[in-house]
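Before a computer can learn anything about folding, someone has to put a protein's shape into writing. The outcome of that step, for a single protein, is printed below:
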Amino acid sequence: MGYSFNDSLGAGLPLFNSHDYSHHSKRRVHPGNPSPIHGYSIHSPFIRKGGEILPHDRLPEQGMLPKKAYEAIHNDIALDGSPQLNLATFVTTWMEPTANQLYTEAFDKNLIDKDEYPKTAEIEERCIRILADLWHAPHPHTTMGVSTTGSSESCMLGGLALKRRWQNERKKQGKPIDRPNIVFSSAVQVVWKKFANYWDIEPRYVNISPDCPYLDPKGVLSSVDENTIGVVTTLGVTYTGLYEPVEQIAKCLDELQSRTGLNIPIHVDAASGGFIAPFLQPEIIWDFQIERVKSINVSGHKYGLVYPGIGWIIWREAEDLPEDLIFHVSYLGGNMSTFALSFTRPSAQVLLQYYNFLRLGKEGYYEIQKYTQSVALFLSNAIQKIEHFELLTDGSHLPVLAWRLKEGHSSHWNLYDLSRTLRTFGWQVPAYPLPPDMENVTIMRVVVRTEFSMELAQVFLMNLIESITYLDSMDRPVSNETKHHIAFKKGTPFSHPFVRT
């Protein structure tokens, strides 16, 4: 059962070069453009009249039939990996047929047109109230919140509110506002690095360590000062799935305020954990139950179980979102307020979020997230028994598990080799280094989502063991490639280390 491996298979076989069609046909040269057109070969099923090759880098002179255009793109994306086997992404890849039907009925609605689509606008507002209540906002019916295209936009908005509140307070005190800083872990999601860069804010990183692989409260205290606009904590670190100790960090900042008068707010990046902790770990205090937490973001398209393109941010109280960041416009009909980085946005994902709220309720979310966690725990329990690996996280926070290779396992392969080998089965499992000061440690991570069943987990384990067996059979290093060679490059074919029989 399974696949047999032979390290001689595929030896000497030529790799297809996407920029070389000479072995198929002569390239056509567009009049006025002496350089060859990179496009389909003469054997493509989408031949235009006169044998014209479809260009990839310019608008074609003429159009084509709808079915032909569909087939051209359909055949291209057929070469993508399977979303169901993508264990790298946190993003939802499956919804119910009834949700798909709702999606097709609403994809043409622009969410910003609130005067034209008042019920859709009302549903967005209902979702905001539901999340504010779920996260224990003191006044969920009056606080502020907004939907976004994802957590990255939500984080930007939360950070802007932190900066503007700090600026306004400093102006009242007659103090300068030219040197703001923000504090977070070195394992923070890249959006916060972007935020600091884009908005001219000094990032202050608290580096993780083997003993504290998340935001260290002591490190926070040593990093903050009067110019700190806020501390960003993460409920579900992207690298490992761990929750950062929001309550402990808040208590340290409370003590700091009692000694120095510095009142530093917290933003919780709950992109993943915001839809997990309320159902699976209700005993953890991390949300608006902590007075110092002023804003929370979440990705609806992660464990909110909605297709890509929806995030949320909620503020603890209405006054935590500075009024001067809100714009009022009348040119869409009526007078509406807007606070977002984007304007035109699809409404379908907002409606799908509300669909899930109605469809699942608290009980349904609990059952789904609990099952997902059980799959993660099953996998981590099996993986920790594999002698090659040292388990770092087991899925007891987020349903995410991560592991590293034990010292001295083999000199012939590493986790990057294992990642490439798993791809021959279709599995996409990332290998990557940890952030400073642990960049010398490479880990592998599996994100368990709702659509990743226990049956698929068993198949994955079988393929994982087969991949390890193959790599162990090598009597020489698999390759000299490192992480820098396995990233996506435009026009570069993927190189498999072996073929299956």
In short: The CA atoms of residues 161 and 322 lie 6 Å apart. The radius of gyration is 26 Å.
